Amino acid sequence: MRIACLGGGPAGLYFAISMKRRDPAHQVVVIERNRPDDTFGWGVVLSDETLDNLAANDAVSAARIREHFAYWDDIAVIHDGVKTVSTGHGFCGIGRRQLLLLLQERARELGIELRFESDVPDERIDELRREFDLVLAADGLNSRTRQRYAEHFQPDIDVRACKFVWLGTRQTFNDAFTFIFEKTEHGWVWAHAYQFDADTATFIVECSEATWRAFGFGEMSQQASIAVCERIFARHLDGHALMSNANHIRGSAWINFPRVLCARWSFDNVVLMGDAAATAHFSIGSGTKLALESAIALADYLHSEPDMASAFARYEEERRTEVLRLQSAARNSTEWFEQVERYLDLDPVQFNYSLLTRSQRISHENLRLRDPAWLESAERWFQAQAGNEGSARAPMFAPYRLRDMQLINRVVVSPMAQYKAVDGCPSDWHFVHYAERAKGGAGLVYTEMTCVSPEGRITPGCPGFYAPEHEAAWQRLCDFVHAETPAKLCAQIGHSGPKGSTQLGWQEMDAPLPEGNWPIMAASAVPWSARNQVPRAMDRADMERVRDEFVAAAQMAERAGFDMLEVHAAHGYLLSSFITPLTNRRDDDYGGSLENRMRYPLEVIRAVRQVWPAHKPLSVRISANDWVGDEGVTPDEAVEIARLLQAAEVDIVDVSAGQTSTRARPVYGRMFQTPFSDRIRNETGMATMAVGNIYQADHVNSILMAGRADLVCLARPHLADPYWTLHAAAGIQDGECEWPAPYRAGRDQLQRLAERGEGWT
Question: Whose C-alpha in 320, 540, 553, 736 is 20 to 30 A from the C-alpha of 162?
């Protein structure tokens, strides 16, 4: 094959090397517009795994690269005058310039033609496509090739919020990968610093756009900008200067990071690689790793597949998964730094933990493997904050207090509809279901949404709080749970609104009943879907009646013996239909602005708070994101909703999302709704509960230890295993959980098996 590699960075050079290694007959030329030793970055970070992949692909270049690596195992975080160090992280770095020179040397040895200072204008790209069998577009972040064929590649470029400048220094930071946070007269400025050779370190300075503007960095020369950064970080630089290698750029050289993602990576005989195809934020240091491993993969497939189109398809299929995984981690990391001022008031222990776990690639138990001593000290700190001085149990087993309700741990059995009530009355099914989960070790057990009136039911199988027999059935459950377990019980009350009069959950979810439908109402006459009934728009008399039904339900829950109450104002039900503009089309005092849309839900919540005992906590469940962009409730607006709930004496907000419209397009993943809880908690100071695809003890502990929520709710895991909490405790070898006395023999066997690394099936 005749191959042209556009771009002489790591991607282009290493692909050229990989192709020649597989077949020396290939004619490969690398075309680079800069000089051989020009480079505008400083250090490159790689992992041991990537080094092993390089060695298997080309042992010669891998050995040379390894000779120039700087290794470090620690991460240091300097915040609020405290330096926190954790170990076991295993990084290695090399200067970008050194890496390029080594790859250039290896390329020449293999007979690859290197053309430097050779610019390729747009029209020349078309000529190269005709001249060569394959054109590799590794021409970087601002790829001309990607832009030339944009209609085919369909790039999506998301310019991120923070400003940063890539600098270097002779202060090597040779003891750790170091993050430094400094509070200045214009706001917070932080640095990412790491050694990459014997006497040089990368020093990336980053700040918010507002801070950047306040300093006037955009109007400064590079040297003036560097002088300010040297002043900000003077006590960490120990007299060493900061250096730029971007002198070819006019101005201060500060930029915003662009996240690049392309719908397609190939067109005809042109294929994208490296930053031209996808970018990963510098805060997770994986851009060069992605490029090198992509080069290996494409070279493999070009020699294993029957034709170029098949090779491109396999390359994209394999590498896109890895790229998206890393981009997801990079997005989490990027957003953490963009929002870092939210966390800077955290205790240094919790701040350090939050930083280490920001991308979700490092979890609680993974930290234990890396640095058990540091994690144990952090767990002791968390338990001490919870009033459990001297304990080193995992965060999920820390006690928690809301008003006078004391929970033995932070695990919550989330509300899960059972559809087994008869005329609104909970049955023996409900008794067994909730009793089993209370015996299973969770600190707090929720009922499913219990409806405040017959017409407020979602389905004919939903339970209620509107008849004496309902109260008696719920009281039977409360009495048993309080007598036999340490768990507390929360009653969730709500009204179905526009999603009422529908089929049981295991029939057709949210679909109207085949027969026997009852009238429904909502904030506006907006149906849940084209198939559902059009609800009656509530008038003032309706509002007063429903408000009083919520109050009566709350009083019934108190008499039944519940420890906590939650008002359901999420998921498109009646109160939610007022909150979201997707279904609230009113033009009176209850529609339009957020203040107006919250007016009626707050009226109900305040009325409930008045009758609910002062010593018992009140929660509200919200949908913090309608998943339809600015047309619905956004995470920004959710923060304001939480502030309004705080003012209404709500103690904790149960932060869910979505289910307010059939138009919603959620972004799923592990713990995918936790960021909304995180934001509300750390911007308002209000206690929160996190929900949504949380299913491991590791998830629970990570969320709590990072300060992203105060309680963690698990739904489906508790459907699959009523004893999830007790089993999770055994899995992490926590022997302090209280088991029901008749079950202790089972506990002992489970703990013995766990100690041997076994389980039961």
Answer: 320
CB atoms within 10 A of CB 219: 11
Write out residues in the chain with pLDDT < 70, as ranges.
40, 247-251, 759-761
Q: Which residues contact 642 (CB under 8 A, 6 or more apart)?
A: 622, 653, 680, 684, 686, 688
DSSP letter (8 states) at residue 181: E
Is 573 labeled as catalytic in the residue annotation?
Answer: yes
Q: Which of 315, 466, 573, 590 is catalytic?
A: 573
Among candidate residues 469, 409, 516, the one with its CA nearest the CA of residue 738? 409
Provide the pairing of β-strand 488-494 with 564-569: parallel
Residues 637, 594 contacting (CB under 8 angstroms): yes
- Residues 217, 254 contacting (CB under 8 angstroms): yes
Distance CA 472, CA 470 (A): 5
According to the 3-state scheme, what is the secondary structure of 293-314? HHHHHHHHHHHHCCCHHHHHHH
The per-residue pLDDT for 592 is 97
| pLDDT tens digits along 295-306 | 999 999 999 999
Core vs surface per residue 543-552: b (16+ CB within 10 A) or e: beebbebbbb
Report pTM. Answer: 0.91
C-alpha–C-alpha distance, residues 10 and 8, integer Å: 7
Residues 6 or more apart whose CB falls under 8 angstroms from that of 505 comprise 417, 419, 459
Please write the tens of the pLDDT for every residue from 336-389: 999 999 999 999 999 999 999 999 889 999 999 999 999 999 999 999 999 999
Distance CA 46, CA 51 (A): 7
Conformation bin of residue 446: beta by default, left when phi > 0, alpha when psi is -120 to 50: beta
Q: Which of 326, 329, 288 is nearest to 138 (CA)?
A: 288
Query: Across the chain, which distance is largest between two alpha carbons, in Å?
Result: 89
Q: Which residues contact 10 (CB under 8 A, 6 or more apart)?
A: 44, 99, 100, 103, 274, 288, 291, 292
